[in-house]
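Residues determine shape. Take a concrete instance:
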Amino acid sequence: MITTAPLLKLIEDTGEGVLVLVDSLDETEFARSRLTRSEVDRLLRLMGGWRAKSPDLFKKRPKNLPGLDS
């Protein structure tokens, strides 16, 4: 099992990959690009797979997060 920090880094990097692919595309361009759609789909499935392998990590929310909790 991957520990928390490396897992979160993988998810972050994968999300950034999705953003790079779709950043300059409008909805029509994205719909026309089979290559981009398939790569975005692959990356999102990777993210979902990592999330599914460690559900406890995403179920628990730390309490008293500085800057987020009042």
